[in-house]
Design goal:
Blueprint lengths: L6 E5 L6 H11 L4 E2 L3 E2 L14 E2 L2 H9 L3 E7 L2 E6 H10 L3 E4 L2 H10 L4 E6 L3 H11 L4 H14 L8 E4 L3 H16 L6 H13 L1
Parallel strand pairs: 1-7, 1-8, 2-7, 3-4, 8-9
Antiparallel strand pairs: 3-6, 5-6
Bound molecules: adenosine-5'-diphosphate and guanosine-5'-monophosphate.
The site of adenosine-5'-diphosphate (ADP) has 13 residues, from helix 1 and helix 5.
Length: 206
């Protein structure tokens, strides 16, 4: 059917397991492309330049905004994060599926510009488990942890704006669900079905 790839947008509160799920999904689905975001946040101990993020300073980020190089951007917990537009557009047009792991403000901007995207919200099994996961990751200061936890309670109501909800109880199961969503989306009937009908009608004439 359509030659365009899917744009899969994954969001949810910090610590819910988005990064863990996306990493496992990317290992399992070899032709899925990850959009590497730009951020003004400092790298964590296990992160590297160009792999987890493109780590840039505020001035470079402002230049990207002014040059309209970002598909979306947002200030999340005191730092800026944004999706470079060119990579996403090029890959989708080549027919490749692209994964964005971005916050809710960003996802809503993408939905506005590209409503045919697939919007997936990830939640933890409980708020208690969420706090445990953020603490266990050991990446946040007390202040940052509290900000993330407080934001989570406000973010949950935005689940209504998404197409799918996955409760990340067990990582393997959550990844399987995400794979199933992608498979289902690929079978969805769109206006491109006309091409399929024409092809079959042509074949019947022979
Ligand atoms: P996010 O990207 O949403 O901020 P992470 O993927 O960094 O979240 O996960 C936060 C922490 O929770 C990590 O330490 C990760 O190993 C752990 N985690 C993720 N998913 C699960 C799960 N299903 N069960 C238990 N721990 C999990
Ligand atoms: P972290 O600092 O934990 O890596 O990410 C903090 C938040 O920023 C997460 O909710 C993550 O999904 C979000 N984020 C990462 N990249 C982007 C991006 O390009 N745009 C937006 N809007 N949010 C992003």
């Amino acid at each position: 059917m359509t030659n365009k790839g899917l744009l899969i947008v994954v969001s949810g509160p910090s610590g819910t397991g988005k990064g863990t799920i996306c990493k496992q999904l990317l290992n399992a689905v070899s032709d899925l492309k990850l959009s590497v975001s730009a951020t003004t946040r400092a790298p964590r101990a296990d992160e590297s330049q160009g792999v987890n993020y493109s780590f840039i300073d505020k001035q470079q980020f402002e230049t990207m905004i002014n040059e309209h190089e970002l598909l979306e951007y947002a200030k999340v917990y005191d730092n800026f994060y944004g999706t470079p537009k060119k990579y996403v557009v090029d890959e989708i047009n080549k027919g490749n599926d692209v994964l964005l792991e971005i916050d809710i403000q960003g996802a809503l901007q993408v939905k506005e510009k590209y409503p045919e995207g697939v919007f997936v919200f990830i939640l933890p099994p409980s708020m208690k488990e969420l706090k445990k996961r953020i603490v266990s990751r050991g990446s946040e200061t007390e202040d940052s942890l509290n900000k993330r936890y407080k934001s989570a309670t406000e973010e949950i109501s935005f689940v209504r704006e998404y197409n799918y909800l996955i409760i990340n109880d067990e990582v393997d199961m959550a990844v399987e669900k995400l794979k199933a969503i992608i498979s289902a989306e690929k079978c969805k009937i769109t206006e491109d079905v006309e091409e399929v009908i024409t092809k079959f009608k042509e074949e019947m004439k022979c």
